[in-house]
Design goal:
Elements lengths: L1 E4 L8 H14 L4 E6 L4 H12 L7 E4 L5 H8 L5 E6 L5 H9 L2 E6 L6 H16 L6 E9 L4 H12 L10 E2 L2 H7 L13 H15 L5
Parallel strand pairs: 1-4, 1-5, 2-3, 2-4, 5-6, 6-7
């Protein structure tokens, strides 16, 4: 299965979702390819820290791919891996468009505090163009990431996302917890931190289990 984590607004935590998903899939025994398609190369930085932190196998293979040729390159790699996770930047780029043409699932994280209504119309326009050029429909999941523990921002963003049926909002919010930043600074997923943040783990596992159909360990 090929997952693209994207959107057209920065600051929504795409790399956190991408890297944690790659590690989570590998912990379920899958051969995983993580593709850094973002010019900021955050997933590559995470992986470099991970290679320094972990003495054993990091759990996945990383490659950097950019531009329109990403589509052809991913198609060539598809059969070599159980899952491919593509981390794209927060803009409408050739890399993200190429990724969406070959992906099975598109993950759209929205951070409530940076939520702006104009983003939706641009995302919808992008998806309409992509869907019309695909032989099968792209499965889309939008969700709240870096959400507040409580407050009006979450509920307001949720309400607007629910109104856009094509974005297929799923109510599995990921709260903006310190554990994610602490783990990332060491090249670790939230599942590998000691001591463990059970709430963070539970939230991410609930989202990933829902979108993949893979049961939690």
């Amino acid at each position: 299965m090929i997952f693209t984590v994207g959107g057209i607004k920065g600051g929504t935590g795409k790399t956190t979702i991408s890297t944690n998903l790659a590690v989570w899939l590998s912990r379920h025994g899958a051969d995983v390819l993580l593709v850094d398609a973002d010019e900021q190369e955050s997933a590559s930085d995470f992986t470099a820290w991970r290679e320094e932190t972990k003495s054993d196998d990091i759990g996945y293979t990383l490659v950097q791919l950019h531009g329109a040729t990403l589509r052809r390159q991913i198609e060539q790699m598809r059969s070599k891996h159980d899952h491919i996770v593509i981390d794209t930047g927060g803009r409408d780029t050739a890399s993200q468009r190429a990724a969406l043409f070959v992906s099975d699932i598109y993950l759209l994280p929205f951070a409530p505090r940076s939520y702006e209504i104009w983003t939706l119309s641009k995302v919808q326009a992008l998806l309409s163009e992509i869907q019309s050029g695909r032989p099968t429909s792209l499965q889309i999941y939008s969700f709240l990431n870096k959400a507040d523990t409580r407050g009006a921002d979450n509920s307001e963003a949720t309400e607007v996302l629910r109104e856009n049926e094509e974005l297929n909002f799923v109510d599995f919010p990921i709260i903006n917890r310190k554990a994610f930043a602490t783990a990332a600074s060491k090249g670790l997923s939230v599942f590998e931190m000691v001591p463990a943040d059970e709430k963070a783990i539970s939230e991410v596992e609930a989202l990933f289990s829902h979108i993949t159909g893979i049961k939690k360990k």
